Amino acid sequence: MSDFPWLSVLIALPLLGAVAVSVLPRDNEPLVKWFSFGVSTLVGVLALAMAAGFDAGGDRFQFTEKYWWIKEFGIHWALGVDGVALVLILLSVILVPLVMLASWNEDERSGGVDVPAKRSVKTYFALLLSLEAAMIGVFAATDVFLFYVFFEAMLIPVYFIIGHYGGGAARERSYAAVKFLLYSLFGGLLMLVSVIWLYPLSNKPVGEGGLGHGTFMFQELRGLHVDPTTAKWLFLGFFIAFAIKAPMVPVHTWLPTAAQQSPPGALVLIVGVLDKVGTYGMLRFCLELFPGASKWATPAVLVFAVISIIYGAILAIGQVDLKRLIAYTSVSHFGFIVLGIFAMTSQGQSGAALYMVNHGFSTAALFLLVGFMIVRRRSAKITDFGGVQKAAPVLAGTFLIAGLSGLSLPGLSPFVSEFLVLVGTFSRYKVAACFAVTGVVLAAIYVLWMYQRTMGGPKVPAVEGMKDLTAREKWAVAPIIAIIVAMGFFPQPVLHVINPSVKETLARVDRHDPAPTLTGNVAENGARP
Amino acid sequence: MKAEGIQAASWLLIALPLAGAAILLLGGRRTDKWGHLLGVAAPVASFAIGIAMLVQMLGYDDAARRRTLHLWDFINVGGFRIGMDLLVDPLSISFVLLITGVGSLIHIYSVGYMAEDPDRRRFFAYLNLFVAAMLLLVLGGNFLVLFLGWEGVGLASYLLIGFWQHKPTAATAAKKAFVVNRVGDMGLIIAIALMFSTFGTVDFGPILGAGAEHAGLAAKLSTGTATAIGLLLLLGACGKSAQLPLQSWLLDAMEGPTPVSALIHAATMVTAGVYLIVRSGPIFEMSDTAQLVVTIVGAATLLAGAIIGCGKDDIKKALAGSTMSQIGYMTLAAGLGRPGYVFAIAHLIAHGFFKAGLFLGAGSVMHGTNDDVNMRHYGALRGVMMATYVTFGLGFLAIIGFPFLSGWFTKDAIIEAAFDKGGTSGAILGACAVIGAGITAYYMSRVMIMTFFGEKRWEEGVHPHESPKVMTVPLMLLAVGSVAAGGLLILGGFADFLEPVTGKPEHAESFKWVTLPGIVVLVLMVIGFAIAWMQYGRRPVPREAPAGSFVTVAARKDLYGDAINESLLMRPGQWLTRLAVWFDGRGVDGAVNGLAALIGGTSGRFRRIQTGFARSYALSMFFGAALVVAALLVVNVS
């Protein structure tokens, strides 16, 4: 089955599913839901089957496909995954069916707020499926132009989900959607310029640093020698687009607004997966296409990363809306991911790649549970809760575990990645690591204070009789919690897949891990304890 | 050397209580009926395995007593290679037995103490989780696995302090404990990162060496790096062990059920900092500065804790101040280096017995007085609670250092070791320790007298009664430990037993029964008791606390620890948060909105975009696509 076009199938399947959903009868809601759920589950199973055939010790890109798409412009339909892309695709395909499960009812899709007109169920599920296709495509694309196309294609379903299915008033919803779009289009435009610029650069003769033919193929572009000044401009084009997507301070403000207005299920995909494209893009494209410019920008990027960590965490502490709060915690966590990437050490970058996966699951659990809380209380305001633990202990307990994963408690998966990032950063940039580590304390404050105000304390009257998690809700959250715990103790299988890709990236930027400062022979003092 | 025989199954020690916790939490209400029995069985089984492991260890030569067990590869990235490794050596086995032994007794006691609580099963689940994490902490074979356990006990502590989440005070105390501990954790995290970038590993074996003949990499440390690592580790230790300046959470932690205070906040978890310092001894030994700071922190805390203990009318808080103070002694001893390690650990174990006994005794008193914690409402309880009185009394005698009881052996040893350090610092540290001993005698006598002697000052409707056997039998066993543990350890060759880990002191002195500091301490003990007797034994104790002197007021307010934290950290933090929220809404976001409006021509235009967003989207997509094609054409032609 080595020639089987796994990735094209994985992209086509949800897309065809979306088309099929849109022609299903409008009034048969269960059919729409079960069909969509079935399609996304099938995609998940297929992706897992593909992953089982991935050889971590083999070629960097596997399951590759390459066809001409627009020959005149040198654009290929070229797909393939390395370790980092593979785990991010797995993250996406695992989350989509669970999000569907959690978005089963109208009030769950609307974020628990009553909406005047009943909104189309099948459009929502069709949008989710088409978003899934775009997400798989963006991680699988090995042609930079194709990557850009998927990058922009993701915007469409998200834009409509925020604008149509959000919880707030129509005016606020569309404000959030437009803000999201403006930010993204602005970033996308900058990236587009850089992407297109690559073509004439590669078209230059080999002697002048080009490749002798115009192309957008990532693997070929890695061999490009761009003059330093141009490289800096191109780097910035990519980086700003990715920083907006990630999002980093100061271009983060679209996220809290979008988070507040979005349905919780869609938020899982926006923050859990979509935003990862930003950090994934930095690791893959910024560093590997413009290694010199990346090193040039490193000090500034590290500063912004540290600011994101601390500023995001402080803002999270100050939030009164649950969804906004978690959005700001993500700003802080994305700071860690960027820090790890630009620390340019294997621990930092492997940690950052793992962080993307772990943060995806961790925020997914948080957003889904917050969604369940909102449905019950019809409010996302922290002050509207209190004492939930007494009324709904399972909800409270799961929320606590999800929260603890948000503060990177050892034993839960985010700890491993956060620790790797800190260790990897410290070995090269000690001051940055020391500032970043304060995020550990701030995270404890925002998570535990949130838990205390919503779940602890005496029961407020409105919480009286709040029902605990239903079986369907449990099925939506339990797999995520199980993954968080399992990867907290056994992260090595995932790291094993990630490490070789990171090695390639580091080789390209020509950075090596700093050697231990103490020149003692470890082996002489005995093996591992 | 690899662990063999029963030691090869040392993972079971951790797995059993962990499984207990998992079953009780996932099983939910279905396990309510027998949950407490399973909860007790887990640590008892671990204790039995621990004993078997000790017996096996005693069969080995000194050099062969250090056994490791590699369970699985935890994290391998580049040179950062961390195994899920366990280390069984004399130090870890001592802790294993303390944790599972005292832990089992406290589990049994809790069956009675929590009998009325509807969530008793959950309580046992958390206790089991704690035992598992604590065992991981002491058995971890590298600093990262230690850190896993370190945070695990922090979680268990958080869950158990806040066990009665519906009480706002409990919820706040739990959060405070976790957050303050996290401040210490920053130190530990950076310490581990610094060790990795220095040594290229964080495994105990290569860094710390294996016994005296195998010096580890730590021996090659420069003084500066050793000082840095040492102080960072100390910061972590201060958080977990409630040492100055991170002490403020421990008194609030008394919001948790009393068995929790006994197990976690007296006998085991709070001593983890001492374990960390003793374990990392070879690093501290490379830096006089780091060691000196450790001793200063210890001495300051032992005095501060003792003074706080004097001012409290809440029996649990008085004991909590005492715990701070006693751990101060251990920290002081650990900072003294090789002469001190064994006394630190011996005092830690002895303290584990008598302080657990005292806390459980306090719990027994509360059990009989409708959960009243105010000692001014006690008095004359010796008549109605005989078993509690006797066992508490023995714990009391042990802690004040009554001759031949546990505390006399272990605390006096620390005081002497402090003087033996020599020089000005030795004299000052020794003097602090002696004064602390006097104050200890005073506040513990105060607790003892206010609770069990004098006149009845019981609240109306309270009928104090002795606790059931399931509670008093553990008290009796702990009392035996309070009496005998110190003597057995000091006279029974504990120093030789630990030597493979802690190393041989340059001039080890044999135990002396009579010493000058010992006599001074004894005199101060009598004076301390006498003052307490004059104040609380001969005069009636007022049911309302009198105004008190400046010192009393300060002690009642925990020496203004909270006030300092509030004005220096909390308030500024709140202002910073508010400022950031305001700035993010106005500053950053405002600028972006303004920019958007500018691009759109007028703010009115921007609003129009918002309303017709589907149409505008289609338009911008069209223009965007046209732009892309145009650009592609341009670069292709050129």
TrEMBL record, chain A:
<feature type="transmembrane region" description="Helical">
    <location>
        <begin position="123"/>
        <end position="141"/>
    </location>
</feature>
<dbReference type="GO" id="GO:0016491">
    <property type="term" value="F:oxidoreductase activity"/>
</dbReference>
<keyword id="KW-0560">Oxidoreductase</keyword>
<dbReference type="InterPro" id="IPR010227">
    <property type="entry name" value="NADH_Q_OxRdtase_chainM/4"/>
</dbReference>
<protein>
    <submittedName>
        <fullName>NADH-quinone oxidoreductase subunit M</fullName>
        <ecNumber>1.6.5.11</ecNumber>
    </submittedName>
</protein>
<feature type="transmembrane region" description="Helical">
    <location>
        <begin position="429"/>
        <end position="449"/>
    </location>
</feature>
<feature type="transmembrane region" description="Helical">
    <location>
        <begin position="325"/>
        <end position="346"/>
    </location>
</feature>
<feature type="domain" description="NADH:quinone oxidoreductase/Mrp antiporter transmembrane">
    <location>
        <begin position="141"/>
        <end position="442"/>
    </location>
</feature>
<dbReference type="Pfam" id="PF00361">
    <property type="entry name" value="Proton_antipo_M"/>
</dbReference>
<feature type="transmembrane region" description="Helical">
    <location>
        <begin position="6"/>
        <end position="24"/>
    </location>
</feature>
<feature type="transmembrane region" description="Helical">
    <location>
        <begin position="352"/>
        <end position="375"/>
    </location>
</feature>
<feature type="transmembrane region" description="Helical">
    <location>
        <begin position="267"/>
        <end position="290"/>
    </location>
</feature>
<keyword id="KW-0812">Transmembrane</keyword>
<comment type="similarity">
    <text>Belongs to the complex I subunit 4 family.</text>
</comment>
<feature type="transmembrane region" description="Helical">
    <location>
        <begin position="147"/>
        <end position="168"/>
    </location>
</feature>
<feature type="transmembrane region" description="Helical">
    <location>
        <begin position="74"/>
        <end position="102"/>
    </location>
</feature>
<feature type="transmembrane region" description="Helical">
    <location>
        <begin position="180"/>
        <end position="199"/>
    </location>
</feature>
<feature type="transmembrane region" description="Helical">
    <location>
        <begin position="475"/>
        <end position="495"/>
    </location>
</feature>
<feature type="transmembrane region" description="Helical">
    <location>
        <begin position="296"/>
        <end position="318"/>
    </location>
</feature>
<dbReference type="InterPro" id="IPR003918">
    <property type="entry name" value="NADH_UbQ_OxRdtase"/>
</dbReference>
<keyword id="KW-0472">Membrane</keyword>
<keyword id="KW-1133">Transmembrane helix</keyword>
Automatic annotation (TrEMBL), chain B:
<feature type="transmembrane region" description="Helical">
    <location>
        <begin position="123"/>
        <end position="141"/>
    </location>
</feature>
<feature type="transmembrane region" description="Helical">
    <location>
        <begin position="514"/>
        <end position="534"/>
    </location>
</feature>
<dbReference type="InterPro" id="IPR018393">
    <property type="entry name" value="NADHpl_OxRdtase_5_subgr"/>
</dbReference>
<feature type="transmembrane region" description="Helical">
    <location>
        <begin position="617"/>
        <end position="637"/>
    </location>
</feature>
<dbReference type="Pfam" id="PF00662">
    <property type="entry name" value="Proton_antipo_N"/>
</dbReference>
<feature type="transmembrane region" description="Helical">
    <location>
        <begin position="221"/>
        <end position="239"/>
    </location>
</feature>
<feature type="transmembrane region" description="Helical">
    <location>
        <begin position="425"/>
        <end position="449"/>
    </location>
</feature>
<feature type="transmembrane region" description="Helical">
    <location>
        <begin position="186"/>
        <end position="209"/>
    </location>
</feature>
<dbReference type="Pfam" id="PF00361">
    <property type="entry name" value="Proton_antipo_M"/>
</dbReference>
<feature type="transmembrane region" description="Helical">
    <location>
        <begin position="470"/>
        <end position="494"/>
    </location>
</feature>
<keyword id="KW-1133">Transmembrane helix</keyword>
<feature type="domain" description="NADH:quinone oxidoreductase/Mrp antiporter transmembrane">
    <location>
        <begin position="142"/>
        <end position="433"/>
    </location>
</feature>
<feature type="transmembrane region" description="Helical">
    <location>
        <begin position="383"/>
        <end position="405"/>
    </location>
</feature>
<feature type="transmembrane region" description="Helical">
    <location>
        <begin position="6"/>
        <end position="26"/>
    </location>
</feature>
<feature type="transmembrane region" description="Helical">
    <location>
        <begin position="290"/>
        <end position="311"/>
    </location>
</feature>
<keyword id="KW-0812">Transmembrane</keyword>
<dbReference type="InterPro" id="IPR001516">
    <property type="entry name" value="Proton_antipo_N"/>
</dbReference>
<protein>
    <submittedName>
        <fullName>NADH-quinone oxidoreductase subunit L</fullName>
    </submittedName>
</protein>
<feature type="transmembrane region" description="Helical">
    <location>
        <begin position="91"/>
        <end position="111"/>
    </location>
</feature>
<keyword id="KW-0472">Membrane</keyword>
<dbReference type="InterPro" id="IPR001750">
    <property type="entry name" value="ND/Mrp_TM"/>
</dbReference>
<feature type="transmembrane region" description="Helical">
    <location>
        <begin position="38"/>
        <end position="59"/>
    </location>
</feature>
